[in-house]
Each structure stands twice: as structure tokens, then as C-alpha cells.
């Protein structure tokens, strides 16, 4: 004889209804199991959630979230409609808490359980909130992460670069940077291992003279060469078609020399060539500084991202947009490196893959 069991979840208790009073040994085992389940079931816990906007002053707030309160409010106004919960039932997480949770995750590089404890929510809820906010920010790409193609915009870019070292017609500085990730697993995992022997995504970026990202490509494995990424990018095709007039890009010697991409002279023989290299390297320097500020602001890009690859790609784009918003809003700038350390960083960044130093 079969028995019908209906489990009803109500007020965190499980009530068992049995359609017949006679129980077999198997039925008794089921009843004992459910009784144990009732006793071991955890009660729902609501943790206290700090109001971080009022708890911390401006400096302490920036140290924890890497953006000022003013800039966070600007970003919130842009995405609040996309992340807000439809109701306030069950202690719904507010858009402000979601935003600060995501910024804490990006600024610290900690696990979700750690940043969840910081805000006062469970790690599974923290993961959902972080992904919701990252998607909403990435959807702002067409507004904050575009390469200008109008005459006025290109002229402004050229004037900005010309003021650095009098290198004409430059509309962008081009380079790639490795963002560390965990092993993605699968048959193609080793394609993400780069020449430095860690797993990464090789991110291509073009920046302006004021350290703002103009274009970013975050879909290539760590083993991909910089020049290969550029040749297969949409921005390269646009330069091939002449969409940017006489504008040129500056890059290191890892790229091929073309009419729209200028690289340093590897073997310097005359003072004029020496002067050319010096001007080219100084004018290209903003891309190295942009990567430095970007990774110092969002530590997760330097210490490693523990997410799926497709989520990691969205995270990279979202952090680039956040960086651009901070630049536009003239947010707090991280302290500059000392002169000696800045020179050492530039020296390392100007070394080609074959070990040849671009600087004469």
C-alpha cells in the first residue's frame, strides 16, 4: 500500500501529513529523518548592516572602497533602476549596499564570503549582488568607453598628447596588460597560461593623455600575443579604413610598425633617432600609468580574479568604466610613485619580448 507524503514549508518548520495511520519500517525511517531535519534546520538570521556612508569619513570611505562618496553617488544614479529590488520585503538589500559590496569586492580582491560578512549578508547573496551590479555597470560601455570619431574629439586627443613631448597626430597610446585569473579548467585551460607562467586574460587597451580608457578588449587568453590581439580587433579595422583621419597610435616594439601605429626604433644610430625614441616613449607613457592607476584602484585585477571567465571579462570592462567615471569626475588620485621608482617601472615596461630595450 502506497502512502502520500506532502511537505509544507511554513515559518521554518516542516509539517508531515500522512494519508494512512499504519506505517511500515520504511515509513518510520522517513518520519525519523524529517524529525531530525526539523531539529537541525537553521533559523533565518538577519545581520546588522552598517550605513557606510555615515559611518566613515571621506578618507576612511575611500580607503575601503577606492572611490569617493560623491563619485559613488554619481554611479548609483546611473544604475539604480537596474539593480533596485521591486519590493522591500524580507530585508531586501538596498542599491547602496549592493554598490558598496561590489566596490569592496573589487578594491580588496577578497572572497565573496569575506565581503559578504563586511556588508552583513550571506556569500551566495553577495555573489548575486556583485554580478547584478557588474552587469549594470558594463551596460554603460557605449557612454563611457568609446573612441571618438568626430573631428573635435580627435583634435582634443592630439592636443593632449602633443603637450607631453611634442609628438604630433597621436590619438591614443596602445598596450596590453595581463589580468591574473584562476585556472578556468577544461581542455583549453593551458591557453590562459601566459609567458610569465600564471593564468591570465591579456587585456588590450587604448588610453588618452589624461589616463582615460578609449577602447578595451578583454576576451583573449593569456598566451595570445599583443600584436595578434590588435590585428584581430575592431579598432584595428577602423584604423585600416581610415576612420580616424591622420590620427596615429603609439605602441612598444611588440607591435608591427604601420602607417597608423608607430613603434620605437630598436637600433639608434643618430641623435635625431635618439630624440624620436625619447619623444615616442614619453608620449606613450600614459598607457603604463593608466594600467598602474587602474590596478592600484581595483586590487582584484592584480591579486587575481576567482570567477568564471565570462564573468571575469564583464568585471574587467566594468572596472574600466568605473575608472573612466572617476577620471571624468576628477576623483581622488592615488599617490604618485617616487621619481626613481617611476623611472624603473618605465624601464621595465619599455622592454620588448625579446629582451631588447626600446630606450637608447
From TrEMBL:
<keyword id="KW-0963">Cytoplasm</keyword>
<dbReference type="GO" id="GO:0016787">
    <property type="term" value="F:hydrolase activity"/>
</dbReference>
<comment type="similarity">
    <text>Belongs to the HARBI1 family.</text>
</comment>
<dbReference type="GO" id="GO:0004518">
    <property type="term" value="F:nuclease activity"/>
</dbReference>
<dbReference type="InterPro" id="IPR027806">
    <property type="entry name" value="HARBI1_dom"/>
</dbReference>
<dbReference type="GO" id="GO:0005737">
    <property type="term" value="C:cytoplasm"/>
</dbReference>
<dbReference type="InterPro" id="IPR045249">
    <property type="entry name" value="HARBI1-like"/>
</dbReference>
<dbReference type="Pfam" id="PF13359">
    <property type="entry name" value="DDE_Tnp_4"/>
</dbReference>
<dbReference type="InterPro" id="IPR026103">
    <property type="entry name" value="HARBI1_animal"/>
</dbReference>
<dbReference type="GO" id="GO:0005634">
    <property type="term" value="C:nucleus"/>
</dbReference>
<dbReference type="GO" id="GO:0046872">
    <property type="term" value="F:metal ion binding"/>
</dbReference>
<protein>
    <recommendedName>
        <fullName>Putative nuclease HARBI1</fullName>
    </recommendedName>
</protein>
<keyword id="KW-0479">Metal-binding</keyword>
<keyword id="KW-0539">Nucleus</keyword>
<keyword id="KW-0540">Nuclease</keyword>
<feature type="domain" description="DDE Tnp4">
    <location>
        <begin position="174"/>
        <end position="324"/>
    </location>
</feature>
<comment type="function">
    <text>Transposase-derived protein that may have nuclease activity. Does not have transposase activity.</text>
</comment>
<keyword id="KW-0378">Hydrolase</keyword>
